[in-house]
Amino acid sequence: MAWFTRQKPGVESGPEGEEKHIRTEGLWQKCESCSQIIWKKTLDENFQCCPQCEHHFRIDARARLELLFDGEFETFDAGLVSTDPLNFADSKTYASRLKSMQEATKLSDAVISAAGTLDGRAVNICSMELKFIGGSMGAVVGEIITRAIERSLATRAPLIIVSATGGARMQEGAVSLIQMAKISAALMRLDDAKVPYISVLTDPTTGGVTASFAMLGDLNIAEPGALIGFAGPRVIEQSIRQKLPPGFQRSEFLLAHGFLDAVVKRSELKGYISRALKFFCG
Ligand SMILES: [Zn+2]
Asked: Ligand 1 centre and the CA of 55: distance in Å?
């Protein structure tokens, strides 16, 4: 519960001399990076980035699509659901985990596939939803992305995949790992057909997604400060028995070491992709 004095915007003024407090819960957000208290409306106007330190807050799959498309877009394969091939259970069953995630996110799985225009050019965009079991990739994510690639092949509309993921979905075991090969093979056909594919890596992009389609773009671009890697830093430190350098596995470090083509601010992302597609397609 948050309470603020009248000095802050959004607080009603009372009679002269009287200190009046009202609840402003939900109107403010603290920056995870610089601790600045930010008015949510300012965040909305600033692409969900901190106005002081430019920390990029995470945004959901739908907000991402609205950011990149010109206006309306058509979605595909929204009805695909996992069959729970391993009949998996940990602290709770995978079936019940899926059901609660579907209710919470109003999505059938961790990606939205959509078609529309970006600066007037027809494109297909797949946008991953981190809130759906950590944006993990199982059979449904693999199939939805593969179908989007096949639509790009058929129509020659460029493909953009925005990753936000912890990697392969543990609850589908080897079935989820197969998706890496399946999507990569489809991307090879897209490459043979010379249809551009731009990979956008957002915070976080890790595991089997980094090890496959997120790094296979004709351009691999990331948002500032995004965690990008395959294994987690603790696992790496334990296996190589060395301390990792500061900023390891963040966008800027990866750019400096040749793993990325660009780090682009969210406010400039659409314009950057538009110019890149103009370069690729003419
Ligand atoms: Zn900040």
From this structure: 5
Distance 38 CA to ligand 1 centre (A): 8
Ion ligand 1 neighbours, Cβ < 5 Å: 31, 33-34, 36, 50, 52-53, 55
**CA 31 to ligand 1 center in whole angstroms:** 5
Å from CA of 37 to ligand 1 middle: 8
Question: Could you tell me the pTM of the whole model?
Answer: 0.90
Output the pLDDT for position 2: 35
Which of the four pLDDT bands, split at 50, 70 and 90, describes residue 161? very high
Euclidean distance between CA atoms 259 and 95, whole angstroms: 37
What is the structure's pLDDT at 233? 86
